[in-house]
User: Fold these one by one.
Assistant:
Number 1:
Amino acid sequence: MDQEVLVDSNVYIDLLRSGRDPAKAIFDRYESVDVVTCGMVQLEVLRGVKLPKHRQWLEDTFSLMMNVPTDNQLWAEAIDLAWKMDRSGRTIPAQDLLISACALSVDAAIHTFDRHFLEVPGLTVLTDPF
């Protein structure tokens, strides 16, 4: 795969709950492509971290990735995506719309266990387990 990959928060959370190192698992899996993140994924992952040293370690991991900035243009794209999807009868959570807009803006696939992303037009979704 040559396409960049945005790893969804549920992958990080699943890896953490199973006692695995998310950085190792993700970078081993995608060693030949750029791994992408965004503020919403970081928020969803870091809010549940209990220990400051674990939070710092995950923040350091995120800093190694390309971060998709959520500027006004990206918000407009997320709003447009939400509007179009809602009108076609496909309603997904706002966080997933924002994450989708981030991935689409840099032409990245998304690795997730969340089936909502399969509804997003034009988004390449990877759902296989780690």
Number 2:
Amino acid sequence: MPLLVALLVVVGLLFVLWIAFAKDPGPAPADVAIAYERAWDLLDFDLLYDLSGPQLRDGMRRDEFVAAKRAAYERSGHRAPVGAHVSVDETVAANETAVVVTRVTAGEGSICNDVVLEKTANGWVVVRYAIRDDRGAG
């Protein structure tokens, strides 16, 4: 009898955990955008691949993508992380799409980027990325 009770308790706990994981929405669009910016700063091209949608992978497999990005940075002479600070200025999310305006600050300057994300079965991925042109603002 005690074995049956223990088995029921274990099954019950597993069910509760399964429900908890199923209900977890995962990282918010702003969190993914910050991770994307940090991956660029840290030159973590494996993570960058994971956070990018197919639109940003140029049809490359992971190994090709990582090798191409590393080679490009080697040619540019940029081989070390900058140590930038990343923050979010604004987030607009609707249905399965979100736009996050990030601010990347390094040294004495900063730049804002539009990070466009789409929700997939595996969570949010970056599908478009552009420097924000705020010259006309103000």
Number 3:
Amino acid sequence: MTEQNDASQGKKIAGLERNVFFSGLTSFLTDTTTKMIYCIMPLFLLSIGATKTDLSLIEGIAESTASVLKALSGWWSDKIGKNKPFMVIGYAITTIIAPLYSLAGVPLQILYLRFIERVGKGIRTAPRDSLIAGSSKQKKSGKNFGFHKAMDNCGAIAGPLLAYCILMVFPSEYRKIFLISAIPAFAGVITIIFFIKEAKIEKESLPGKIVLKDFSSRYYIFLFITFIFTLGNSTDALLLVKANDIGINALYIPLVYLIYNSVSVLFAVPMGTLSDKIGRERLIILGYLLYSAVYFGFGRSNVKAVIILLFALYGLYSALTDGVQKALVSDLIHRDKRGTGLGIYNAVLGITLLPASLIAGILYDRVNYSAPFYFGASTALLAAAMMFLFYKVHKGKPDTVN
């Protein structure tokens, strides 16, 4: 997609382009909703009869089957030159689904609702990332994606904290959390409608036919590396189950998840800004190595204090990689095809979550609770080695495609 002109040239807010700031605010509000739900969903599912494998499959199926939409919506937004409609629809779906979880009585119903909610995420993700990349001035995409990740994780702090407060007043009343969670998501949709400005793209500036050969070999190599890494990066729900299994009270599970997100918020913008200065690849390699060490620790330790420390380090891994990887992908894609390229990237991550979650769930239930974490540590180590070779081969070559 061509550079966002009207949308990015207006008055800055907190030193950020208007669209970047309000996209971040929308993600903060929506993530408050989704993380209120996510931090207690594993325990809710177990309470209505789900197994660890069921839990992993629900997350994997919901994420993977809806992830095809990430590529489709990104391609479609490139073709019509608009991002905002996809964002409104995608975020509205999450708002509608959130309170409906309170009506579920069996795990299969949760699967249906999770799938529909993930469809919403599939519709909005690539167009939103394209808007952020297009609204970023040269060499600032790392900072802007870092800000977006930080706002995302601020919501992931607020959500578990609100869930904890509700559980303090209403112990084990998970359904009340589902009902209340829709409020911030609704505010997020209002933010998009009134504060995010669509770029005005001339019809002749829109891309023509988009084909696979439009993307560089470096882009596809990086996609393969992220596929290998994601194969061992199963649902975070298993980390929360592990914390509960070693004796951390269910009441405090939202606070454990809050620690992870707090660290990610603290470091996301600094890491994104650092990647603008020293390059993305080095931070991604470090992030993969840290992930490998953290997952090995989850598999090895049953000490509460160690597990809490590992959640904090997991947050640092997130800050090192999540926004930085998107910034690298946007560097490797021509600007008028960023929606498609970022959509394919997000789709690869989402689709891979199905086999990743299935493998992890089976290992957890049928081998032992350490096996899925050792597997994740191994795939992360392999991905780090591949990323190091990627960096060495392409060192000194410019990333950005105009």
